[in-house]
Amino acid sequence: MSHAASSPLQDLARSYGVATEYWDWKGNHVRVSDETIRTVLGALDVDASTVQAAQQSLDDRRDETWRRVLPRVVVLRHGWTPWVSVHVPEGTDITALIRLEDGDERKVAQVDHVVEPREIDGVLTGEATLELPGDLPLGYHTLHVTYGEDEATAPVIVTPRRLQLPEALRTSRAWGLTTQLYSVRSERSWGLGDAADLAELGTWAARQGADFVLINPVHAAEPVATMEPSPYLPTSRRFVNPMYIRVEEVPEVGYLSAAEHQMIEWHGDDARRLNGLADLDRDGTWEAKEAALRMVFRQERTHRRRRDFEEFCEREGQGLVDYATWCALVIDRGLPWETWPAELRDPRSDAVAAERDRLADEVEFHCWLQWIVQSQLADAQREVTAAGMSLGVIHDVAVGVHPGGADGWALADVLAQGVSVGAPPDDYNQLGQDWSQPPWRPDRLAEQGYAPYRDMLRTTLRLAGGLRVDHILGLFRLWWVPKGRPATEGTYVRYDHEALVGILALEAHRAGAFVIGEDLGTVEDWVRDYLADRGLLGTSILWFEREDGVAPRPAESYRQLCLASVTTHDLPPTAGYLDGEHIRVRDQLGLLTRPVEEEKAADDEQREAVLAELRQRNLLPAKATVEEQVGALYRYLTWSPAKLIGVAVPDLVGDVRIINQPGTDEEYPNWRLPLAGPDGEPVSLEEVMTSRRAKRLIRNVTQKQPQR
């Protein structure tokens, strides 16, 4: 792209990775307004309010690295030997070493690289150059530089060149289920699917030959009503929603008195009545579970259980304390936290410390809930792999957090203020999107050695055999929208993808897990190539795989490194898509941008092109039922080289309703629909596991097909 005419503001923006221009979805060249650029820079604490201020900030930016003895952080791939600049008063001798994670030390050599000294803040400053050794082990190390009587340090993060595939995927492919866990309820569920239901579903699927089950994000939500229904708008991405606890499977339940047992049963009976509702009732489920769990929490623990809890709290550290403190304050003072007294909006304040002491029991309760829910989800992973799954549970990581949530409070210093994440206009959302989520600040993440990002990944990876990263393009760039402005008036902000993807690969490598990137939508070609080069899988949805906008892409031409599926949670289940449910719903809600007849005609043409391809390949008879069409579509995926094939649980039972309709909030029951049959009547997990329809569909992906 040719840069717009240079000015201090334009140059300043580009130096911070803020786009000053871009190409829109129609191929038009768009210049970002100066007002948007100034607002986005302001969110990075960069003054660009006037031409003079922008010039001063640009001058400061050019001197920034010279003001630092060492870079904020050094991220490299295993085997690389990068040069690191050291800035000290001219003529000062330096010595350098790297202290490894395990305590060992390595000397670091200085290389002969002459750079003219510069006067910085009245001090003649020189630049020395170090070359890091190429045999550093993977992990988190520290570079130490001594100059005169002073010392400086910088984190050094060594990441894998490439994340290796699990053994099961190196020579063959795997298939598994994809599901919104909360929507799959058993007869024992308290109104929502939980960790025990996950284990039940996964062990059943393992017996059918499945190697994984991919679930929605299970990130934490608000501890009080009204609980946000979207799993993609959590209060924290590091911690887990205790709604997924199966109360009866908490070990301490076994030590309750008879009267307490009876109380638990009463709470369970009330909650199980929610299984019959047409829509899910998260608040009702949590009200019953919270009351029961508070009783269990008060029960004395055995010595080994007490030690286990203490070790969990020690491992999770200050992050867990902050999260639990926020929950306790929310229950005490309500939401939004932005209305609390100013001294309580800073998690490091003396006032918050005093409140933490006052609410100590409540803080411990929320720490305990995390211990229980994470333990149960980790148990589910162990159970499904013991049952024969080679990969196990794949967890999902949302792209951001609710601005009024626990992370918004505890991590305010690394989240940008005054802007939110969204997406520019595209074919499906022509006004653009504002997801109302505060983005990471690239500079603050680097200053903290990416610790908040690492902590978030580690929690989820402890529970998983694999990780799906929603909108993985956000590790490269995000669309920042100034508060109060439409999404069309945003701009892209670049991130250090080498660091973010590298750390993701490192954490997954250490956990023995693999990574799927949700890379749907408009993507620069090099991004997909880069992710594949790092060993991360992409995502292919059959309906989106087209060659000329209509004709289906031949299955044989799909990527090998990808999860291929027929549908996704932003589309109807396959039976619904075949029947035009996505057109019908958008028409009823007034979301179509052209006459419904045109939409139907275009959709009919695309759908018929796919079905014609199936008939041509003898996968489908001339006259076929909807169930046969669904089966043939999944059979078609087995002709692809894709390493993973995902079978949507709603397709097992003929569900037709879309789980989430983009572009809506309360107009449609997003994320509130239970698993249901073709007639819209709820279907239980037990019915799924005895369903002949489900087993017929599964046979379409388990029949042997030669790798192509």
TrEMBL record:
Q: What is its EC number?
A: 2.4.1.25
Class of enzymatic activity (EC top level): transferase
Pfam families, per database record: Glyco_hydro_77 (PF02446), MalQ_N (PF21226)
The name of this protein is 4-alpha-glucanotransferase
Q: Which UniProt keywords apply?
A: Carbohydrate metabolism, Glycosyltransferase, Transferase
Give the family from UniProt: Belongs to the disproportionating enzyme family.
Xref: Gene3D superfamilies: Glycosidases
Can you provide one Gene Ontology molecular function annotated for this UniProt record? 4-alpha-glucanotransferase activity
A Gene Ontology annotation in the biological process aspect, one of them, is: carbohydrate metabolic process
Q: What is the lineage of its organism?
A: Bacteria, Bacillati, Actinomycetota, Actinomycetes, Micrococcales
UniProt catalytic activity: Transfers a segment of a (1->4)-alpha-D-glucan to a new position in an acceptor, which may be glucose or a (1->4)-alpha-D-glucan
Q: Where is the MalQ N-terminal beta-sandwich domain?
A: 70-160
